[in-house]
Design a protein that fits this description.
about 625 residues; alpha+beta; 13 helices; 39 strands; about 20% helix; binds ligand MIG
C-alpha cells in the first residue's frame, strides 16, 4: 500500500487515525524528478507520479500498469476537497462497508456519516450506521486488475460512481485527503492488504458463532427464562439471549431494573445451567443524574465530551438528558472498560453496543454537535472531524475492558456503529431493517460488502426488526441467515413476537433444521472464522471473490459462498418454490440430494418452503 496525503495550505496532522495499525516494515523508495512530475518508486512495489503543476497523482504497479489514475483535484471555498480518478465500462466497484443496494456500486453515490436510520433502508439512504471508506475498483476482462482506495477520514466523506461516465469522485468535507492505495493485484489481495492496514478480527468465543435470540425487549426475568426453556423444550439450538434496554434501572447503564430483574444473579445461574450466554445492551449515553455514581464520577474526572467552550455536552437519549464518554481519552476509555466488571460479576461475557453513532434525539443533526471536542491525548479533534470514529472507540474500550476482566476468555462485542478497523473489536449487525422481503434480499449484498471491507463477522436482524414478519419470511430468512457469520433473530417493541415457534409447526421445523445445519457445519464455520483472523478474508463471499474472471458473477448477490466450498441460493420472494442458480465452473453437488451437477451454467433449483438450494464444490 502507498499512503498519500494531500492538503491545502497549512500542513496537516500527519499522525494516522486509530483505524490504521502501526506499520513497522521500512521500504526503500527512490525519487525521480522530471520537468513534469515527481516520481516515487518503492523497491519491488508501486510507483507514484505527482504532476508538479496540478498536484494530481497516479499510482502504478511495478510492471508499469496504471492503478489509480488521477484526473482532477480541487478544494472548494469551504475547504472541502474533491479528487477524481479514471474509470471505464469495464470498471466495477465494491466495498464501502454497510450500504444499501446491490453488490456492485457503479452508478451509486454514498456518503460516510454514521447515522441512526429508523426509516426504511432504501437505495436513497446514502449513509447508515457504519462508515468504511474503502472503495475497491475492479476491472473485468483483460487483466482483471483490482486495487483499493482507503480514505482515512472519519469526518463526512462521499464516494461518487454515478455523476460522470469516465471518472469517479472521492470527497472530503474537512478537506482531509489521507489516502491509501492498495495495489492488489487480485481482489483477494486487496482485501488482505486492507486487513494488513486496519487489522484482522480476533477469534470470537465459539458460543458467539451459535444462534442468538433477541427482542426489544424481553421484559423481565420470567420472560427471559421462558424463552430459554422453550428453546430447549423445542430443541431449537441456541447459545445466546439478549437483554435490550428494559433490563436497566431507568436506562442507566451498568444497573438492573429492580422490579423487572429482582434477582439477576439467580437468573444468570439458571440460564447458565441451561447452557445460555446473556448479552446485555450498553448504550453510550450516561443519564444526567447527581445520584448516579457513573455520571458523578464521569463529570468529576472529566471523562465526558465537552463543547468547544468547555461545558459537558448533554444530549437526549433513552435515559433523558445524558453525557457521553470521550473514548479518544485513554483514561476515560479505560474507566469505561473497567465499568464492565459489573457485568462480568454477573457471569456475562458479551456486550451489545447500540446508539453509538452516536444517535441523539434532540439535536437537529440527530447526533453530537460538531463543535464537541475530543481530547485525543492532547491532539484534539472536533466531532465534525472524527464523528465516524465514535462508535468504534466505544467498542474498543468495551472489548479491552471485557478482555481485562475475563481473565483469558475471549470477549464478544456486537456494535451498530463503526469505522474502518471495527473488525478488531466487534461483530456488526446491520441495524434497524424491516420485515420486508426486499430487506432479506438486501441483507446478502450488505453482508458481502461488509466482508470485502474487513468486517467478516456481520449479519442482519433475521426476520427483520420493525414491521410484522410472516412465518414464510421468517422461514426463508432463517434459512439464509443460518449461514451468515452473525446469526441473530431480533424484533422491535410493538411488533408481534418473532421466535422460531410463533408461526406454527411447519416454520418451527424449518428453523430447527436450518439452525441445526449451522451447528452441523460448526467445524467448517469455526475454521472460516480462524481463516479470517489470519488472512482477513471474509467468511461469506460473493462468487466474484473466488471466480473473478467469470463475467456472470460481477454483480451476483442473490446467492453467496460460505468459504470457498458451500454455495447457498436462498429464496428471496414469497410464494416461490423454484429459482435459477448460477453454478460457477467445476463440478458441484446438491447438498440435499447428492446429485452431481456440471458448473459454468444456470440450473433451475426446486425449493419448496423446506428447501434452500445449497451446493458443495466437488
Ligand atoms: O432507539 O434498544 O437498532 O436493535 O432494539 C432504538 C432498542 C434503540 C435500536 C437498535 C435496536 C434496539 C433498539 N435501539
Amino acid at each position: 500500500a502507498v499512503r498519500i496525503r494531500l492538503f491545502f495550505g497549512v500542513a496537516p496532522d500527519l499522525a494516522t487515525t486509530p483505524a490504521v495499525l502501526p506499520q513497522t516494515k521500512a521500504v526503500a523508495v527512490s525519487l525521480e524528478e522530471t520537468a513534469r512530475e515527481y516520481r516515487a518508486v518503492a523497491a519491488g512495489g508501486v510507483a507514484v507520479a505527482v504532476d508538479r503543476e496540478r498536484g494530481i497523482f497516479s499510482v502504478f504497479r511495478a510492471n508499469g500498469e496504471t492503478l489509480f489514475a488521477g484526473v482532477d483535484l480541487f478544494w472548494d471555498r469551504d475547504r472541502s476537497a474533491t479528487l477524481t480518478a479514471g474509470m471505464d465500462e469495464d470498471s466495477h466497484f465494491y466495498g464501502l462497508g454497510e450500504k444499501t443496494g446491490f453488490l456492485g456500486k457503479k452508478g451509486e453515490r454514498y456518503e460516510m456519516w454514521n447515522s441512526d436510520v429508523y426509516e426504511p433502508h432504501v437505495p436513497d439512504i446514502s449513509a447508515l450506521y457504519q462508515s468504511i471508506p474503502l472503495l475497491i475498483h475492479f476491472r473485468s476482462g483483460g487483466t482483471g486488475a483490482a486495487y483499493g482506495v482507503f480514505l482515512d477520514d472519519p469526518g463526512r466523506t462521499a464516494f461518487d460512481m454515478r455523476t460522470s461516465p469516465d471518472r469517479y469522485a472521492i470527497q472530503s468535507e474537512n478537506g482531509n485527503l489521507d489516502l491509501y492505495v492498495l495495489e492488489g493485484p487480485t481482489l483477494k489481495d486487496v482485501v488482505k492488504r486492507y486487513a494488513g492496514l486496519t487489522g484482522k478480527p480476533p477469534m470470537p468465543p465459539r458460543w458467539a458463532i451459535g444462534y442468538q435470540q433477541s427482542r426489544y425487549s424481553y421484559m423481565n426475568e420470567e420472560e427471559v427464562l421462558s424463552i430459554a426453556r422453550t428453546m430447549r423444550e423445542k430443541r431449537i439450538p441456541c447459545d445466546v439471549i439478549y437483554l435490550d434496554i428494559h433490563y436497566m434501572d431507568e436506562y442507566r447503564v451498568f444497573t438492573w431494573d429492580p422490579e423487572r430483574f429482582p434477582d439477576p444473579k439467580g437468573m444468570m445461574r439458571q440460564l447458565k445451567e441451561m447452557g445460555f450466554r446473556v448479552v446485555p445492551i450498553v448504550d453510550p449515553g450516561v443519564k444526567q443524574d447527581p445520584k448516579y455514581p457513573v455520571y458523578v464520577e464521569g463529570v468529576r474526572e472529566g471523562y465526558f465530551c465537552k463543547k468547544l467552550e468547555g461545558e459537558t455536552f448533554i444530549g437526549n437519549v433513552w435515559p433523558g438528558p445524558s453525557a457521553f464518554t470521550d473514548y479518544t481519552d485513554d483514561r476515560a476509555a479505560k474507566w469505561w472498560g473497567d465499568l464492565h466488571q459489573f457485568y462480568i460479576d454477573h457471569g456475562i461475557e458479551g456486550i451489545w453496543n447500540d446508539m453509538n453513532e452516536p444517535s441523539v434525539f434532540n439535536t437537529a443533526s440527530k447526533t453530537m454537535d460538531v463543535d464537541v471536542v475530543h481530547a485525543n491525548g492532547g491532539n484534539p479533534k472536533t466531532h465534525g472531524e472524527w464523528h465516524n470514529l465514535y462508535g468504534m472507540l466505544m467498542s474498543k474500550a468495551t472489548y479491552e475492558g471485557m478482555a481485562r476482566g475475563l481473565g483469558g476468555e475471549r470477549p464478544f462485542v456486537l456494535t451498530r456503529a463503526g469505522y474502518a478497523g471495527i473488525q478488531r473489536y466487534a461483530a456488526v449487525w446491520t441495524g434497524d431493517n424491516r420485515s420486508y422481503w426486499e430487506h432479506l434480499a438486501m441483507s446478502i449484498p450488505m453482508v458481502l460488502n461488509l466482508g470485502l471491507s474487513g468486517v467478516a463477522f456481520a449479519g442482519p436482524d433475521i426476520g427483520g426488526f420493525s414491521h410484522h414478519a410472516s412465518g414464510e419470511l421468517v422461514a426463508r430468512w432463517t434459512q439464509a441467515g443460518a449461514l451468515f457469520p452473525f446469526c441473530r433473530n431480533h424484533s422491535a417493541i410493538d411488533t408481534p413476537h418473532q421466535e422460531p415457534w410463533v408461526y406454527g409447526e411447519r416454520v418451527e421445523a424449518i428453523c430447527r433444521e436450518y439452525l441445526g445445519l449451522r451447528y452441523r457445519l460448526m467445524p467448517y464455520l469455526y475454521s472460516l472464522f480462524y481463516e479470517a483472523t489470519s488472512t482477513g478474508l471474509p467468511i461469506v463471499r460473493p462468487l466474484l471473490l473466488e471466480y473473478p474472471e467469470d463475467a456472470n458473477v460481477a454483480n451476483l448477490c442473490d446467492q453467496f459462498l460460505l468459504g470457498r466450498d458451500l454455495l447457498a441460493a436462498p429464496i428471496l420472494r414469497p410464494g416461490t418454490t423454484a429459482r435459477s442458480v448460477y453454478l460457477p465452473e467445476g463440478e458441484w453437488l446438491d447438498f440435499w440430494t447428492g446429485e452431481r451437477l456440471e458448473g459454468g451454467r444456470f440450473v433451475l433449483a426446486q425449493a419448496p418452503l423446506e428447501v434452500m438450494p445449497l451446493y458443495v464444490r466437488a
